[in-house]
Design goal:
Length: 180
Amino acid sequence: MAQTINRLTARKVETIKTPGYLKDGGGLFLQVGESGSKSWIFEFRFAGRRREMGLGSLERVSLSEARAQRDACNQMLRAHRANTVDAMSMRRLLEKMGYGERASVHGFRSTFRDWAAERTATPREVCEQALAHTIGNAVEAAYRRGDLFDKRRRLMDAWAEYCSQPPVKRAGKVVPMRSA
């Protein structure tokens, strides 16, 4: 069933006084506060969790502007979902590239985590979010509201730079370890 969008009218937005959320559709809501203040909220799901993003007060953002922002946000979310790569897709790519037996998705993730810890000053929380790890402590998860996006982007740019460098020639001979 298709979702109804653009349910609200300019008149309804201006005249509503009852506190609560009024749904316009497509994730857009008008939030009416106890004091009568009105603001636009965009609700969406990301990484399996419900999120809310404020789009501005009614005084600053009109109904049509809020709808345009909602549409832009939904477009970005669709683009992100289309570009998300799951572990199985990554494994198939490794096999196509001829690394199926020599490399694994877990190996890439593990190497990234070791590199980030040993070669960068990036905080542990940023590295864990870059790996999409969940926070095990419920109290800590409740207080962590940001997504550290800019910091994760810088970290991933540095990782891409590191991965694109040619292998370093090591001096000496690698000697295999033998069991006694």
